[in-house]
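In this supplementary section we document a worked example of the pipeline. Step one takes a protein sequence of length 265 as its only input; no multiple sequence alignment statistics are reported here. Step two produces a three-dimensional model, which step three serialises into structure tokens for compact storage. The input and output of this example are shown verbatim.
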Amino acid sequence: MLKYEIIDNQKEEWVVFVHGIGGSTKTWGKQIEAFSEQYNLLLLDLPGHGLNADNVIYKVDADKLHNGIKDTMDHLQISQAHFVGLSMGTIVIVNFAVCHPEYVKTIILGGSSLKLSGIYKGAVILANKIKRHVPYEFLYKFFAWFMMPSKSHKKSRLIFLREVVKLKKETMYAWIEYVQFTLHPEQILTRLEALGKKILFISGDEDHCFLDDAKALARKMRNTEIRIIEKCGHICSIEKWSVFNRIVLDFLSGNVANMKIAGSN
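The serialised model returned by step three reads:
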């Protein structure tokens, strides 16, 4: 099983949160109060992160990871849940849903990184090639500034830098490899679409790495919606947390939101 935090309010439905690289259960601090009013919450720590940060991960075993999520849910007697992911966590969720669809009710993808293309794909490939030859500090600072370059992204960037430094360098290298080599978007998304799960993409309009691909995937796939948050970067659940929360809760309750939503915290 994975390490986790749980909030069981004896509600009818569960929401499972999956963070991105360098994150942890603490990533979702701005979501806990709002979501726990209506749902039970399961916040997962991915291998090598958070409560698992002392464990060195040399390679991410995708099958073991998916079974770890399944075993954790079985242990807690959670038969099905809504899944909310952020950044790399969106990759984990989509692959888990394809492997164990019966556990997944709906899928919310914040700062979706499902498709690596253009300059970001090149950055990941470059990072994999040079990771053994440059200082670890350079690598994680490079990704922080690459994904969150603007002044308005400063809070998210500082949070990322504060948390990622806790990772063992081998763990970060392993997850970078996972991002590059595990996901095969066309195959995975075709299989996901066939399952008929409702999917929500949420992106900031300043997410220069992934926004265009999120729009393209949302247009292409059935049962899919997208919400774009104004004046917001990649880590939308932190930068514009109140707007993010409202969008997701509206989606889960079946309410319709505007395509583009402005808001500030």
